[in-house]
Amino acid sequence: MQAYIARRLVTTVPIVALVGTVVFLLVHLTPGDPAVIMLGPDAPAEAVVRLRHDLGLDQPLAAQWLHWFRRIITGDLGRSIFFGLPVTAVIRQHLVPTVLLSLLAILFAVGIGLPAGIVSAVRRGSALDQAVTLVAFLGVSVPEFWLALNLVLLFAVRLALLPVAGYVPPTQGLGTTLRYLLLPAFTMGFVQSALIARMTRAAMLEVVAQDYIRTAHAKGLAFRQVTLRHAFPNALIAVVTVVGIVFSVMMGGNVVAETIFTIPGIGQLLMSSVLRRDYPLIQGIVLLVALAYVLINLLVDVVYALVDPRIRY
Amino acid sequence: MRYRRLCVMSVLAALLAATLGGWAQAAPPVRGGTLTVALSADPPALDIHSTTAYLTEIVSWHVFEPLFTYDRNFRIIPMLAEGYTVGQGGREYTITLRSGVRFHNGKEMTAQDVVASLQRWMKLAVVAVPFFRDDVEAVEARGPRTVVVRLRQPSGILIAALAQPIQLAGIYPEAVVTAAGTNRITQLSELIGTGPFRFVRWQPGQVIELERFEGYAARPGGPDGYGGQKVAYVDRLRFVIVPDVQTRINGVLTGQYDYAESITADAYADLRNNPRVRTLILKPYGQPMAVFNKRKGLFTDRRMRQAFLAALDMSKIMAGTFGNPLMFRVDGSLMFRESPWYSRAGLGPYNARNVAEARRLLAEAGYRGQPVRWITSAAFDWAYKPALIASQQLAEAGFTIDLQVLDWATVLSRRANPDLYEVFSTSFIFSPGIDPPIQPVIISPTWPGWWTTEEKDRLIGRLIREPDIQARKQIWEQVQRLYWEDVPGIKFGDFFNLAIARPGVQGLSTRPDLFFWNVWVTP
């Protein structure tokens, strides 16, 4: 297992480097000049030329790439053009809200999706199954921004139970942080719970049709015991996979929820950085997201071995 | 019985008196509390010399102050200056400074600070670089409270440029600007001004926090436009970044924010009668425009540009873009109605839709349906909607419009390349300090669109050098006449900006440039 993890970590390096290079080329070949955006559209040409020089944007693309790659190797992601701060510092500021939001959202997603999927599978064809299927269908279909705005209108504007938007760091009280994160996390969690419910239902249906489940029922085991002790663990592989994918997506930042709820997270930062053509920051965020994807995938593979003793690396 | 009637009468009289009293005088200002303002985006910098961004202006001019500013009628008045005199035939400006003005670091402002600040600003400011920077022979201190600006040629726009809010000629401590040079200052500890508020915290993408500067030296007298007496009533001023417009609205409705800017015009009808919110129309705000590429392609021919103008119905374009008539007006004057430069000279061709005339001009120019590439962006209603509506009107006149909808950064990039477009969308945002020659769309031969004619250059040259205000106004009217004859671009009309506030926020102005000094909060 340890050798496998080490091998996987080594393969991470070329993947991240490749992703970084592709993004480097994409952002530099996209029209739009960060110097013009920084100085304003009517800035004097000489000021733009000076800023481009200061930022190294007047160098040939190959030289810029080489410079960027050398810095990356030493762990230096450069400075944000827009904020004038180190990229790592800007990302760090925006990472905590995204991590907290993703953790809370995945709790909602799993907390809603998993029981719904299990119940739907074991009560196949019942009214409950149809209700879960309908809600899951809605969850997949409903636009996230529409759900978010309606939740705000209900819980913040009409009932005044929760804040409209914003983020309070945990240093000012975890309770307050959770109050601010509740609506965005539920929005993200509900949308993703539909996928988890459908995947869980499909995996469970496959398992409950197996012979050993029929045998377990025939032995007279309690329905609940058969479902949770015998069927569910064998359906977990598929569920772990989808939860891993969902969490990876969330960690990449959620532009819709972060924008509507004004969460200063990675998604919002990436979007605004693209609009501002803040090259170093875009590259830094994409590198981080790529790394998060790879590591979460690795974690999922490790969890496979833990939930299914037959899997050995 | 009589006693009861007397009691009732007394109560009614007291109530009436209280009510009339309430109408007659507003509640006195209250010190304390926090004012939370929701902004639509992050300012690109807080160093007010470094950018023309509007968001930088409305945050940072609470911290930095200019030598001159604008009164309620958009006339220039002194701010950190006491006054100025002009000598040497318009080539020497002697500016006297106020005494007792302190920076946020406790040190008193001197002429040395002003000289260093102006020297830096002149290297960076859009209004200075093309118009008078090269004419500046020297900026020097003559004693602790006198600054002299010596010019090689007279300038009619120096003081106006020093007063304009966008990319404000703010005064910093000498040590700070000398150390920074032309580099952007990013450390809050170095962003030191003389204003009624000082910076406390900046978390990019989240919040910019300012607090009252207790050592602020206010001007005597009352408030006057952007100047006069400034009082920081609130202890703290927080600018929070809220990109989503509906979230800004909801935040004010619930009291989480006190004020929100850039509210879409279509929300006005819903918000106007809501008791939980006050609507404020910031007037004037901007002019949506289409600018022609006059360096290459179809629109190097003036008849093509005139045909384009003749095909347009501005009333429909403005109504279709901004909806509510309170949020726009159809006016072709290049300078806003509120500006001392407003003129109706030469407006004949503006909004005189004449499709037959447009077709005639197209035929005369030899146009045969070649595609007209119009680059615009859906990021702003003022850019996208006029282009969309105008495209239909132009098609009726025989134009083939290729509307290219891009993100704003790409528009800014492409408009600098004459091979890539025929028309681009832009907007000229109101600034009271905008002296006509400073309007890039009108003046600069190097600005995208590249308007260069002998007559225009001659008139603008006179306008820059002429110190007499009446003579300058007459020259400006000639420029405006030339504009609507030559049609280097098309102004569609004027639009206004909608802001909203909690009812408990008092002392707000509806001027286009937001400020929160002289503003106080009640529950």
**Low-confidence residue ranges of chain A:** none
Structural Rg of chain A = 24 Å
Helix proportion range of chain A: over 70%
Identify the quaternary structure here: heterodimer
What is the arithmetic mean of pLDDT of chain A? 88
Q: Structural class per helix/strand content of chain A?
A: mainly alpha
Largest sheet of chain A, if any? none
The most extensive interface, with participating residues per chain, is: A-B, 47 and 46 residues
- What's the SSE pattern of chain A? HHHHHHHHHHHHH
Total helical elements of chain A: 13
- Form type of chain A: globular
Using the CA coordinates, give the radius of gyration of chain B.
Answer: 25 Å
Spans of chain B with pLDDT under 50 lasting ≥5 residues? 1-25
Proportion in helices of chain B: 25-40%
The fraction of residues in strands of chain B falls at 15-25%
The tally of beta strands of chain B, per DSSP, is 22
What's the count of strands of chain A?
0
Alpha carbon gap, first and last residue of chain B: 42 Å
Distance between the termini of chain A: 6 Å
The number of helices of chain B is: 15
